[in-house]
Design brief:
about 90 residues; Rossmann fold; four-stranded parallel sheet
Length: about 90
Protein backbone atom coordinates (compact mmCIF):
# COMPACT_ATOMS: atom_id res chain seq x y z
CA UNK A 1 0.00 0.00 0.00
CA UNK A 2 1.24 3.50 -0.80
CA UNK A 3 2.06 5.81 2.08
CA UNK A 4 1.07 9.49 2.01
CA UNK A 5 0.90 12.35 4.49
CA UNK A 6 -1.40 15.31 3.91
CA UNK A 7 -0.18 18.52 5.57
CA UNK A 8 -2.85 21.09 6.42
CA UNK A 9 -1.64 24.45 7.78
CA UNK A 10 -4.24 26.21 9.92
CA UNK A 11 -4.89 29.19 12.18
CA UNK A 12 -8.15 29.56 14.13
CA UNK A 13 -10.25 27.34 11.86
CA UNK A 14 -12.60 25.73 14.39
CA UNK A 15 -15.58 26.15 12.06
CA UNK A 16 -14.02 24.15 9.21
CA UNK A 17 -11.09 22.03 10.41
CA UNK A 18 -13.20 19.03 11.43
CA UNK A 19 -14.70 18.62 7.97
CA UNK A 20 -11.35 19.25 6.26
CA UNK A 21 -9.68 16.52 8.32
CA UNK A 22 -12.54 14.07 7.70
CA UNK A 23 -12.40 14.78 3.96
CA UNK A 24 -8.63 14.30 3.88
CA UNK A 25 -8.87 10.97 5.72
CA UNK A 26 -11.65 9.86 3.39
CA UNK A 27 -9.45 10.80 0.42
CA UNK A 28 -6.58 8.69 1.75
CA UNK A 29 -8.88 5.69 2.08
CA UNK A 30 -10.41 6.22 -1.36
CA UNK A 31 -6.93 6.36 -2.91
CA UNK A 32 -5.94 3.18 -1.04
CA UNK A 33 -3.17 5.03 0.76
CA UNK A 34 -1.85 4.26 4.18
CA UNK A 35 -1.05 7.62 5.68
CA UNK A 36 -1.85 10.41 8.06
CA UNK A 37 -3.36 13.86 8.09
CA UNK A 38 -0.98 16.29 9.77
CA UNK A 39 -2.40 19.63 10.87
CA UNK A 40 0.33 22.21 11.33
CA UNK A 41 -1.28 24.78 13.61
CA UNK A 42 -0.04 28.35 13.45
CA UNK A 43 -0.81 29.44 17.03
CA UNK A 44 -4.59 29.00 17.08
CA UNK A 45 -6.33 30.41 20.13
CA UNK A 46 -9.66 28.70 19.45
CA UNK A 47 -10.52 24.99 19.64
CA UNK A 48 -9.01 24.10 16.23
CA UNK A 49 -6.28 21.88 17.71
CA UNK A 50 -8.70 19.81 19.81
CA UNK A 51 -11.14 19.44 16.94
CA UNK A 52 -8.41 18.33 14.51
CA UNK A 53 -7.14 15.72 16.99
CA UNK A 54 -10.65 14.47 17.73
CA UNK A 55 -11.21 13.88 14.01
CA UNK A 56 -8.07 11.77 13.67
CA UNK A 57 -5.36 14.25 12.64
CA UNK A 58 -1.90 14.44 14.11
CA UNK A 59 -1.19 18.02 15.16
CA UNK A 60 1.92 20.17 15.41
CA UNK A 61 0.90 23.19 17.48
CA UNK A 62 2.90 26.40 17.68
CA UNK A 63 1.98 28.67 20.59
CA UNK A 64 2.45 31.76 18.45
CA UNK A 65 2.05 32.56 14.77
CA UNK A 66 5.19 31.54 12.85
CA UNK A 67 3.98 31.76 9.26
CA UNK A 68 2.97 29.17 6.66
CA UNK A 69 6.49 28.63 5.34
CA UNK A 70 7.78 27.70 8.80
CA UNK A 71 4.76 25.42 9.33
CA UNK A 72 5.56 23.48 6.17
CA UNK A 73 9.30 23.36 6.87
CA UNK A 74 8.78 21.94 10.36
CA UNK A 75 6.22 19.42 9.15
CA UNK A 76 8.46 18.28 6.29
CA UNK A 77 11.45 17.91 8.62
CA UNK A 78 9.41 15.74 10.98
CA UNK A 79 8.19 13.63 8.08
CA UNK A 80 11.69 13.06 6.77
CA UNK A 81 12.73 11.67 10.13
CA UNK A 82 9.64 9.84 11.36
CA UNK A 83 6.93 9.26 8.84
CA UNK A 84 6.00 8.72 5.21
CA UNK A 85 7.98 9.21 2.05
CA UNK A 86 5.24 11.01 0.06
CA UNK A 87 3.77 14.36 1.12
CA UNK A 88 0.84 16.34 -0.27
CA UNK A 89 0.44 19.93 0.97
CA UNK A 90 -3.22 20.92 1.25
CA UNK A 91 -3.72 24.67 1.37
CA UNK A 92 -5.91 26.76 -0.94
CA UNK A 93 -3.37 29.60 -0.73
CA UNK A 94 -0.58 27.52 -2.30
Amino acid sequence: MRELTIIIPRLNEEQTIGQVVRDAIRGLRKASCDGVVLVSDNGSTDTSVNIARSQGARVIHFVRCVGTEVLFDMALNLLRVHMSSSVMPMDPMI
